[in-house]
What does this fold into?
Amino acid sequence: MENPVAFGHGKFLTHYDDVVFFQFNNSESFYNLDLKTAKKIIDIVVTLCNGKPMSFIIDIRGFRGSFSAEAANFLANSSELLKLRISEAFITNSIATNLLIASYKRIYDPVTPHVICDEVRSAEQYCLQSKNTFYGSD
It folds into this structure.
């Protein structure tokens, strides 16, 4: 793991040089991720990817709250992320978060391949498989 960047309630880093790893922690159930924060997240991801398409692992087991429709739409349709995002693996530990992610993907980003996992290992395996499919290797 390299290039760790902390921002707000999150930590971002490249993981095994193939995956961007996001870890969000927030215990405030009223927290709402807004457009300004979404733009900063994209800036961080673009820097970490350094022009190379990667899979994303988003660990939100320690996150409570939601996101604005404006932020969700921006994250899903950002031209910068569309060029860099191969797939997404979400790590969750609650049914409510699973439903939030499923709704987000259905409404805002039905195109990007994704999976919802309950552990890091299965998220890593999914990302490796996605990367291999994207680059056409085994």
About this structure: The first helix runs from residue 35 to 49. The radius of gyration is 14 Å. The CA atoms of residues 21 and 57 lie 5 Å apart. The chain has five helices and eight strands.
